[in-house]
Write a structure and sequence with these properties.
Layout: E1 5-11, H1 18-24, H2 26-33, E2 37-42, E3 54-59, H3 65-70, E4 79-82, H4 89-101, E5 107-110, H5 114-134, E6 138-142, H6 156-163, E7 166-170, H7 172-180, H8 184-197, E8 200-201, H9 206-225, E9 230-233, H10 235-242, H11 247-255, E10 259-262, H12 266-279, E11 284-292, E12 297-302, E13 312-316, E14 326-330, E15 334-342, E16 348-359, E17 368-374, H13 380-383, E18 390-394, H14 398-407, E19 411-413
Parallel strand pairs: 1-2, 1-3, 3-4, 4-5, 6-7, 6-9, 8-13, 9-10, 16-19
Antiparallel strand pairs: 11-12, 11-18, 12-17, 13-14, 15-16, 15-18, 16-17
Helix pairs in contact: 2-5, 5-12, 7-9, 8-9, 9-11
């Protein structure tokens, strides 16, 4: 954590000498400096700080309440107040916090045990950095959302106002044009290497593999040209137009750090982007295909998953069309997290932990299939679902994700 820079915007009464400020708060500052790089900034200079840097308001003494509210327009948002209680600092923080909250400014006081303060700063720092990454992120919508995703619409303008994210439409014809000019020779070596890595290659033919890899290269080049952070692909239209699916392309793009989802699902691609920005992990976007409300188990399935998320993988064909390439990933058992951010302005979310207990192999489901024992009622999917697609992440990430969505005033669905 030591390379994490934190600006401490310092407010101290003119009655206190600057030298005594440090001495009065030696314990909390020394603890924070074990893990973070602290940059002490006088409140008069906070206008020069970059909005990309994480800043905390350090209340060093009492008697600064009026001073802080005089400068409230320049305070970082949300406003995090550090007050260890020395020099009447907590008293001032309580007064300021109340004043700010009554004006709709989200605020929090850091106070208490030093270890807990440090842990909380770490969480808030990562949430801030994730928000900064999302703000200005470019999500390419290649084609149009699948017409069956009737509850997964996102209002581009509202999403930009809330998160700063930019959805941009890219016509499929542009991908087709680049695909047409991508040759088999350009991808032949990559196809051979991928086949060598696979546990097995089943229904798909070498020609299917070449076409799927050409599509991957075409999409990757467009993503680089448009500087996309993420993309979602109207993949079913491609099957009838050029005779290949996007499953392999999306799998490889996720492995390379370009967050990618299918069916033009606008809500799920934002969820995948938020997860990557916050905790640095790729997710598995899938259909909840079977639900057992009595045992709290679900089976999630889709034909695409990043290969890095698998222990082994099998090259298959696409389930619904029985053509082209699909990926059957075999995933490690253990703790997982399910998450979905939804709503037209991306202000609702579902979140649960669970245990991946087995990789299933039902003939009538998409290729990658996992059974998950949830730690919350699976009846949610039957009684109050937030749409179809949900995202599975390996590991227990629920605390950080919950904090992230709560700080951004999202409503949790149960």
């Amino acid at each position: 954590m030591r390379n994490m820079l934190i600006n401490l915007i310092t407010f101290a009464s003119y009655l206190h000498k600057q030298a005594s400020v440090r001495n009065s708060h030696e314990a909390v500052l020394t603890e924070l400096e074990k893990y973070f790089t602290l940059n002490f900034v006088d409140y008069k200079d906070m206008g020069s700080l970059s909005k990309k840097d994480f800043s905390i308001v350090f209340i060093a003494t009492g008697g600064v309440e009026r001073l802080i509210i005089q400068h409230f327009e320049s305070l970082p948002r949300p406003t995090i107040l550090l007050a260890d209680g020395m020099q009447n600092s907590l008293a001032a923080a309580l007064e300021v916090s109340t004043w700010l909250r009554r004006r709709g400014i989200k605020t929090e006081i850091l106070h208490g045990e030093l270890v807990e303060i440090t842990k909380r700063v770490y969480v808030l720092y990562n949430i801030f950095k994730a928000q900064s990454h999302i703000a200005g992120a470019r999500i390419g919508v290649i084609g149009t959302p699948a017409n069956w995703l009737v509850a997964s619409h996102v209002d581009y303008l509202l999403a930009k106002r809330r998160w700063g994210v930019e959805y941009m439409d890219i016509p499929l014809k542009r991908i087709y044009e680049r695909y047409k000019h991508t040759t088999d020779d350009e991808v032949g070596g990559s196809c051979a290497k991928l086949a060598e890595r696979a546990l097995a290659c089943r229904e798909a033919s070498p020609e299917d593999m070449l076409k799927a890899m050409r599509l991957y290269l075409a999409i990757k080049r467009i993503a680089e040209e448009e500087k996309l952070n993420a993309l979602t692909l109207s993949c079913f239209n491609m099957i009838k137009d050029i005779g290949t699916t996007g499953c392999l392309a999306l799998s490889l793009l996720n492995d390379e750090g370009i967050v990618a989802g299918c069916e033009g699902d606008l809500q799920s691609i934002f969820t995948l982007l938020a997860v990557k920005a916050l905790i640095g992990k790729e997710g598995f976007m899938a259909n909840p295909s079977m639900v057992n409300a009595r045992t709290n188990e679900i089976v999630m399935a889709h034909c695409s998953i990043g290969l890095k998320q698998t222990e082994r993988f099998i090259i298959r064909n696409h389930f619904e069309t029985e053509t082209s390439i699909g990926i059957q990933g075999l995933l490690p058992t253990g703790d997982v997290t399910l998450v979905k951010c939804g709503g037209e302005c991306l202000d609702e979310y579902y979140l649960s932990t669970g245990t991946l207990t087995e990789n299933t192999n039902y003939l009538n489901l998409c290729r990658t299939q996992v059974r998950i024992k949830l730690n919350s009622p699976a009846a949610y999917f039957l009684n109050n679902p937030l749409g179809n697609h949900h995202v599975m992440i390996q590991g227990n990430c629920v605390q950080m994700l919950d904090e992230f969505f709560q700080i951004n005033a999202c409503k949790r669905w149960e």
